[in-house]
Every structure is written in structure tokens, then in C-alpha cells.
Amino acid sequence: MDRLTGRSLDLCTGPLSRHGGGMNTKSAYVHGYSPQEARRLGDQADTLAGLLHAGTAYAAGSRVLEVGCGVGAQTVHLARSSPGARIVAIDRSAESLAQAQEYVTAREPWASVEWHIADLHDLPFGVGEFHHVFACFVLEHLPDPGRALAALRRVLRPGGTLTVIEGDHGSVVLHPDSIHAHEVIGHQVRLQAAAGGNALLGRALQPLLSDAGFDQVMVRPRTAYADATRPALVDGLTRKTFIAMVEAVRDQALSTGLTTAADWDRGIADLRLTAEEGGTFHYTFFKAVGVKPLA
Ligand SMILES: C[S@@+](CC[C@H](N)C(=O)[O-])C[C@H]1O[C@@H](n2cnc3c(N)ncnc32)[C@H](O)[C@@H]1O
Q1: Which of 18, 29, 67, 80 has the fewest beta carbons under 10 Å from its own?
Q2: What is the residue with the minimal CA distance to atom 20 of ligand 1?
Q3: Could you report the per-residue pLDDT of 151-180, keeping only the tens digit for each?
Q4: Residue 258 and residue 192: Cα distance in Å, rounded?
């Protein structure tokens, strides 16, 4: 797994675009904010909703903060699982937030969602305002997830819960296996690390939440496995979520000299074989829940 960590690259760019708000990070957001990425987030959320949202249902009337809501892909499922909850969704990207509002209103018109442009490190809310906080695929993009967790803990009321869902690219198991496919996945991990994130964060959630002062921290791996007997998962998970995410960093991988076009294309071709007849793909997500102590 160490072959994936590659934290030595320095790909930091200049000021963040208007999407990033220029608030706190030094580098580009690895997935970007393209229409393709918005579609990928929607495919990902819809394909994995049963797996990832199972067990998350908030009482009617409770105040729930979703941080890093992006284009609203998870907000839709939060609202569906918790009818009557009062959701507040924030993201630092104004454009994503506008898309999220439109997306959620079209799919869950009765949902109660308030939208705010904000950086999760500097939330415009008072101490203990929320019963629950939810973050999905966000901490993995932050240079200091511990600092982010402290900011989320501040706005939670004592006894309130924090739910964090992250992936971990070290959990990928492929058939047919291919060193070339693992190499391109490694490039995605390296680029995310160079942008200040960590695509291997899932495995670290338990100590992270405990160190940030949460009690009763429980982490449960949520394993996704796709083969020809599950065509919807092959399409939704293997192709449209995972392969699409790796393919999206092609230009960054080439321009930074991580690989050549020929090596990249060979790795992607091998990765695609896992979504063909006879191929299989396995990935583990990690879902953590912690409680803010009463005193
Ligand atoms: C991979 S997307 C996930 C979006 C959504 N949670 C989902 O699962 O579909 C990560 C999101 O986190 C947002 N984000 C990253 N850093 C942030 C920060 N410091 N404050 C607020 N949002 C942030 C990005 O703008 C992006 O929309």
C-alpha cells in the first residue's frame, strides 16, 4: 500500500479559482468542478445510497449540517432518509451550491434545506447549533482533517452525532489484476496528496475522530463488490464512479510528468477490463460515527 502514498510531489498551484473561494488551501481540488464531475458525484451517490446511507436517519425536526455538499448528490439521499429533518448544506464553491439547490429541489421538492457558501473550517454558525453533522468524501481533500473535525465539533450540540464517510483507494482489488492499472490508481492518489488531500483516509477515521474528541467512535467498512451478476453496480460503481474518477486526472498526470500517455492508456485499458465480462472490482468505503461528549 505504501506504493500508493507518494506524498513527495509538489503540484501546488496559484490562487484557487472562484470555485475554491481562495479561503484556506494552497492547492487545486483534485477532482475539479466540471460538468463530468458533477455527473460522477450524482452517479456515485445514487449507486451507493443503499450501502452508504443505511443506518443514517435523523429525527423529524432535528437540525442537520451537511458540510462539503458539492452538487447535492448526497443531500438528496439525506433528505429522503430523514423526512422532516431541517438540513443546512454548505460548500465553499458557490457554483456547486447553486447546482445543488436546483438538483435537490427537482428531486426532493419537500425537503427542508438551507444553503450557505462557507468554508467548513470557519462555519458561520454558533456553538452547539446542530443535532447532527454529516460529511461525505470531504475530509479526504483537506490538508488537516483534525482541524476540520474540531470545527465540526464546535457547532454540534453535546450528545450530537458526527457521521463521516470516506473511501480508501488502498482497498481496491481487481480481476484481472494488473500492475499497470494499480499504477494509474497510484497516480490519482499521488495527485490528491499533492493537492493536500489523502485518498487513503478511510483507514484512519477511527483515530482521527477519537483524537478530535469524539466519544463512542464506531467505524464500519462498507464493501462494494461488482461483477457480471450485478450489472448496475458494474456500471454505477466500477465505470461511472471509480474509473471515471481516475480517468479525470489524465491531463494532470501527464503534465506533471508522473507518467507517459502510453503507460497511462495501458493502465486505463486494464482497469476497464474489470468492468467487462469476467472482470470484478472491489472497493471498501469507511463510515464513521462519533458523539460529541456531554461535558
Ligand atoms: C468530492 S466532493 C463531495 C461532494 C458531496 N459530499 C458528495 O459526496 O457528492 C468534495 C466537496 O467538498 C468541498 N470542499 C472541499 N473543501 C472544503 C472546505 N474547506 N469547506 C467547504 N467545502 C469544501 C468541495 O468544494 C467539494 O464540493
Answers
A1: 18
A2: 119
A3: 999 999 999 999 999 999 999 999 999 999
A4: 13
